[in-house]
Amino acid sequence: MIDILNAIVLFSNFVLIPGMAYGAQLALGALGVTLIYAVLRFSNFAHGDLMAFGTAATILFTWWLQSMGVNLGVLPTALLALPVGIAAAVAMSLVMDKAVYSFYRAKRSASVVFVISSVGVMFVLNGLTRLLIGPDDQRFADGERFVIRARDFKDMTGLDEGLALRTTQVITVVVAILVVIALFRFLNHSRMGKAMRAYSDNEDLALLSGIDPKKVVFWTWVIAAGLATVAGVLYGLDKSFKPFTYFQLLLPIFAAAIVGGIGNPVGAIAGGFVIAFSEVTVTYAYKKFLGYIVPGWEPDGLMQLLSTDYKFAVSFVILVVVLLVRPTGLFRGKVV
Amino acid sequence: MSQSVRIILLYSLMFAALVAVGFAQSWPLALAILNMCLISGIMALGVNIQWGYAGLFNVGIMGFAALGGVAAVLVSEPIRGEAWSVGGLGLVASFLSILAAAVAVGWVRKHLPQRGRGLITVLLLIAGYAAARQFFGPAVGAIEALDPTIYGNIGGAGLPVIFSWLVGGLFAGGAAFLISRIALGLRSDYLAIATLGISEIVLAVLKNEDWLARGVKNVSGLDSPVPSAIELQASDWFISFAADIGMTTIEASTVFVRGSYTLLFVIVLALLMWLTERALHSPWGRMMRAIRDNRDAAEAMGKDVVARHRQVFILGSAVVGIAGAMLVTMDGLFTPGTYNPLRYTFLIWVMVIVGGSGNNWGAVLGGFLIWFTWTQAENWGPQAMEFVTSGMAGDSALRLHLMDNAPHMRLMIMGLVLLITLRFFPKGLIPEQIRR
Fold first, then answer.
1. In chain B, how many domains are there?
2. Do A258 and B208 lie within an 8 Å CB cutoff?
3. Do B193 and A258 make contact, defined as CB atoms within 8 angstroms?
4. Between chain B's N and C termini, which has fewer beta carbons within 10 Å?
């Protein structure tokens, strides 16, 4: 019985909790991608770098706050700086929309033209982020590191396995839940949210019924940039900030959006967790876990399905399987 | 201005810029830039075959270039009999288990009723993977334990490295075939994301599978298809030759080696250019443009759109693979850690868009121009920053920080070049010519 408990604690510590946090981060990222896709009808390759840009702005403001001696006590100071980062990312998105995308929207260009111009925006944001904060790893989490320490948990329960719960993991999940609730209330109940959904379903009908497309586009960028910054800051708090890593997050985020059904917000959240848990479970070494479950059995290898270096392969394989079996995704997305 | 005058003029300007670098800086440098321009031109040609002829959006160019690079290693490294004798059997066995599982899955999907075959497929895949792992682990361990400081890999085929250019094309084309089975026929964005994923996976494999090409431990000292600089410096005829043309022996030997590469690359580029131009102006090329411009109409005319897309996707990727093999051959070393999607995928896209998508001459010119700008822009960023911050105190923290990160400005410059071209000159420097 004790062994089973140990196994559960071990599994929670290394798979369940990290998977929850990572899933929440991916879900927020995928929500942004999916919103852009639903309303503006293109895959935004600059989303990863928008996350990086918003996070970089947040980090810089966090450092300034810290240098002024302001902090949030047990919580990371970055939460206080988050609105500034969001404002920076929103401003940048609106500038880019005005300078780049609005032209093609007026011309009703093919979606691939939007995608290629988003590659241009990606380059610009990438360069700008590196100019702002440099290409290196930055850690900016402060405050209390743990809610529960592994050793305290062991003392408390008398089990052999410890369960560590980091503050950043709790914050990630709590913030993600709050953001998602707010977003769905906005989409389902506010006038603007309904207008956005109408615009996404049928652009011409929406225009006929007097919806202002400029406002719809404006709010889409505000929300997408806000989500991107929140996702980026949470990821950076949980792990660390490096511009190139954020660029690489593009793949799991897109995979999450497509797996859930691109253009569908519920799907994006589900997809985020599917991708995150697949990555974590497939790259986890089950040796110790199986040792608890099957007493007296010592496996030879690490019992790891794939080495962590291949985590990209996991999101990719899931993506391919979904595309082959159910191209519209788990929840029916839109395919333009 | 007629098309051909425009081509001649722009290429002459490009050539003049390279000559100017030769006079102002040095000839070895000018040749080094020219060689990279040629390779970039070939990569841009490959992308133009996919994008310009067929409208396929491939963002996995880095992966295909890296596959070409690994071909250079696998073709030219000496045969390592001892590595094969300790681990060859295991590698072959694990490969066969995967193959057996794939064949079994194929049979199941074809012959069993729909109900329950999903489960059997999954079970077969798991069994195949487990069996392969059983053989694979020990074999790889044994291979990597042999001379790990110099080798630790399976070696190569011991052939002259120049063959790898062909093999690199085959590797990349083979990978493109596999991807095309999955992702073609879906929407354009999905192909983009699928290729992005494939290229990341290819790089992950090359970085981590040390038994194949030593992973991040890199392979250096590859066989070279041209005489080495050290050999030249030791030979009497070359020393007197260098004295005759008034260069130091070292400079002359560098120029000679790089010039030989230039010659080889020009031959490859000319050959590919001739082939692609022939293809573009043949009935096949007309069909490809018809499919690109109006897919539905072409399909209604009885053209097999997906098959044609597959064809063009494989051809374009193979061209990129050839360029990847040439690049590694010229460098003489294979370093999987240096492949970066911004440099190897998206920069190539800038080349094609700026040069003129749909026009081979334009794409190659874009390759030249953008590579040239990319190397020169390395200095522009710091110089611009120097100017911007000249009013600040010499040791101000902001100035130092900006100067530090200024080299990254060239990413921004490239982004701006792409955006400006796309908006104001969407047809590029040498636009596609529509022939009736």
1. 1
2. no
3. yes
4. C
Q: What is the DSSP string of B220-267?
A: -S---SS--HHHHHH-HHHHHHHHHHT--HHHHHHHHHHHHHHHHHHH
pLDDT 10s digits, B38-64? 999 999 999 999 998 888 889 999 999
**Arithmetic mean of pLDDT, A93-110:** 93
- Mean pLDDT estimate for chain A: 88
- Domains assigned to chain A: 2-325 (1.10.3470)
ipTM for the whole complex: 0.88
Q: Which residues of A touch B412 (CB under 8 A)?
A: 123-124, 126-128, 131
For the domain that residue B165 is a member of, what is the CATH number? 1.10.3470
**Is residue B219 one of the residues assigned to a domain?**
yes
Torsion region of A303: left, alpha or beta (phi above 0 gives left; psi -120 to 50 gives alpha): left
The answer to whether position B323 is within a domain reads: yes
Q: What is the pLDDT of residue B395?
A: 66
| Token pair recorded at residue B268 | 């490859």
Is B410 part of the contact surface with chain A (CB cutoff 8 Å)? yes
Q: What's the average model confidence in pLDDT over B74-92? A: 83
Residue B152 near chain A (CB below 8 Å): no
CB contact under 8 A, A309 and B353: no
- Please identify which residue in the block is written with the tokens 């859930």: A260
Alpha-carbon distances, residue B242 vs A30, B31, B194, B236 (angstroms): 62, 17, 52, 10
Task: State percent of chain A over pLDDT 70.
Answer: 97
Q: How many angstroms separate the CA atoms of A92 and A101, rounded?
A: 13
Q: Per DSSP, what are the bridge partners of residue B219?
A: B334
Q: Give the Cα separation of A176 and A182 in Å (integer).
A: 10
